[in-house]
Amino acid sequence: MSELNTIALKILEKGKGILAADESTGTMTKRLDGVNVPSTPKNRLLFRETLFSSSSMTECIGGVILYDETIKQNSSKKNKIPELISRMGSAPGIKVDTGAKVLAGSPDEKITEGLDGLRERLKEYYKLGAKFTKWRGVYSISKNYPSKLSIQANAHALARYSALVQECGMVPIVEPEVLMDGEHSSKECYEKTSEVIKRCFDELILYKVDLKGMILKPNMILAGNKSKDKISNEEVAKLTLECLKNSVPSEIPGIAFLSGGQSEIEATENLNLINKYNDTNFIMSYSYGRALQQSALKFWSKDIQNIEGTQKIFNHRAKMNTLAAQGKWSKSLEI
User: Fold this and answer.
1) Domain carrying residue 313
2) Residue 256 lies in a domain
3) Does the N-terminal peptide bond of residue 146 adopt cis geometry, omega within 30 degrees of 0?
4) Active-site residue among 14, 217, 228, 312?
5) Cα separation of 253 and 250, whole Å?
6) Is 198 a catalytic residue?
7) Residue 334: inside a domain, yes or no?
8) Residues of the chain above pLDDT 90, percent
9) Paired sense of beta strands 91-95 and 100-103, if any
10) Average pLDDT in the 205-225 region?
11) 305 by DSSP, 3-state: which?
């Protein structure tokens, strides 16, 4: 077993998942504005540190994806943030892409940038304590999209990124997100997600990426948020499993789903059903941002010094998702 494979398996062991706390300053400002809290470096750190020092970090969260600002900050007790996360028994990770920009040749689509200077940045993050990294490619579904150009360009970037990350001794999370926005059916989402994931693995293999030393972070198979095609949670789970069985090489140690605009309960329920029906060898867990943090953020905004109350809400959400990652969740367990 390689060291990278060991890290990947440890992040996702025993139903543990990943806390995506890698919102850019702009995104975090929108979230804080939405709950009427000033977006200062101090407040951004206070909320994140509240989560990072909660008991569920030891019991439920195997890894935390950080943003560049956060990985370089010190906690209120003067510990470096990666040290705080490691001491809680979780692995510090870092988002390393620089965002989705307009794709030349197809201006309605996006290409994720950040390969320039990446090798040097990775060395810095490794020294700061990062054990894994994340890069997100985004694809929209419509009559003409995602185009072959978008699928190829983003797969190429994800593969180059992954090769550089493994060269530096870290585990790459590969996140090809087919967006939920639109009027598309679940069948279209299935077809496009399958095409996107297959092309990603073609490129990963071409770039000699060790598939046992990476984690895939895909979307679930959902109808578009403006679609008339409403499917049941059971159908979401079965279509998602079918898609992954047909698209993902067996060497992959684990799959950590993104929540992609689902509500907290939806994201938990769908993950639970995926694990109930899971007849693969893949670990099926979660890498959630809003679906782990939203209720805690709303509570925290009413009194940002109420650390214990905020942690209680976050701990509950993390526990629910860790149960779902083992197929042991039920609605009756919700508060």
Assistant:
1) 3-326
2) yes
3) yes
4) 217
5) 8
6) no
7) no
8) 96
9) unpaired
10) 97
11) coil
